[in-house]
Amino acid sequence: MVIPDLGRSPRPAPPHVGPRPEPGSFRDPANRVFHAGDDVLRALDRTAAADWRALAASSFFPPLLTAGKVCGTEELPAGSPLRELPTAPASSGWATVLRHERVPFVSHPYEWSFAMLRDAALLHLEILRAALPAGFTTKDGSAYNLQWRGTEPVFIDIGSFTPLRDGEPWAGYRQFCQTLLYPLMLGAHLGLAFQPWLRAQVDGIEPEQMGPLFRGTRRLLPGVLTHVHLHGSVQRRSAATSTADVRAQLRDAGYTRELAVATVRGLEKLVRRLDHQPAATHWVDYQHTCGYSGDDRASKERFVLAALSAAGRRRLVLDLGANDGRYARLAARHADYVVAVEQDPAVVDRLYRSLRGEGERHVLPLVMDLADPSPGGGWRGIERASFAARADADTVLALALVHHLAIGRNVPLPEVVACLAGLTAPGGRLVVEFVHPDDPMAARLLANKPDGIFPDYRRDAFETLLAEHGTVEDRLELPSGTRTLYRVALP
Q1: I need a labelling partner for 482 at 20 to 30 A (CA). Which of 27, 318, 357, 432 fits?
Q2: pLDDT digits (tens, 9 = 90+) for 226-247
Q3: CA 343, CA 369: separation in Å to the nearest integer?
Q4: Residue % of the chain over a pLDDT of 70
Q5: What kind of fold does domain 282-489 have according to CATH?
Q6: Where are the domains of the chain?
């Protein structure tokens, strides 16, 4: 199995004393993920190693690997120094080690738009539907088992595949409902944003939380009766029943592999029916309402392109406040990968669908409020890394963003600049726009604030803050005279 080349130039990893365990990989004792430099390794115990070799020799897995639907994976040879990994407590040692393709940027499901979550769910079901006839299933059904290459979802939890036992239900069904199906139902049936629900609970939305939202005629909405109410009822009744007993009951009732495949097909049909077009907001049409003249737009684009090309090809670019992705697309010409962050789910969903239609694999759009970015979550707050811990960009674009944070959200200007600098890797570049207080957009924000509340929101104060964090290499005042762009080199 050959790990595909994504055309990325990995950043040289800082020195570490031995391989580092992945904080989010501890729930399955049969396998554990480690980081060794730029390598992503998965250690397998004897049972998991046997399952892997059967999987690699199966008829369904290699085509998925070739198509890029599962992450590139290869077993390391016996003499490889990378196989020297720490042994788990009370373990007899790892039987073998796999090396995985490193995804360009790790994201979390609560940072995805509706269409992204649905496409991830459909890939998960497609893989399961291919696995079942070949005698395999997946132990897990979590949305966290999927990541992205641009707008292309990829299944990453190779350790989740396991041989199928007769009469065995899909062990990942509950996780699938809680982290994929239920969030999609919230959007499609109720028009609710699922992101706060998933961010609040690492294990997703419980049936008991869904039930009260779908009473009366809502019980008849597609999928609700079966996957919310019946699922919740069965789960309560079988709480004291062992897995072996459940398996025996299903086998006695005639539950077959064919029925399992039919169930997955039914889930696929349901997920495809679920759709949600988020209501249009001010931000959807922001590019036409933000007050730029034609000359401003042209000058700004030239400055950004020059800044992106000045330092050579970039490994990772963050476009913060990306809106319709205009500058993220420009950045993709000069970078291996671009993460386009925007707080409005409707804007991100539209951008994702557009990029997906273009077949774009180098731009990942994410939903995130930069005044309340994704924190660390899960066990000890490190199982799911915070955005700041994941963002180590060669270039950060912060265009028409600072005034929204400093004035719109009352974040002190020194904090805004420190945050932007903190997301930029050492030796990287920050390309930032300052909107002057007399600009129409800034004036609109200030109109809703008490007089004199932002005495330090000034261009000279902003430039002083930039100089404290790096060297201003270039600046440009746009023709309108109320906005200035800067390119800052960080030490």
Answers
A1: 318
A2: 999 888 777 776 665 655 555 5
A3: 4
A4: 89
A5: Rossmann fold (3.40.50)
A6: 1-102, 104-276, 282-489
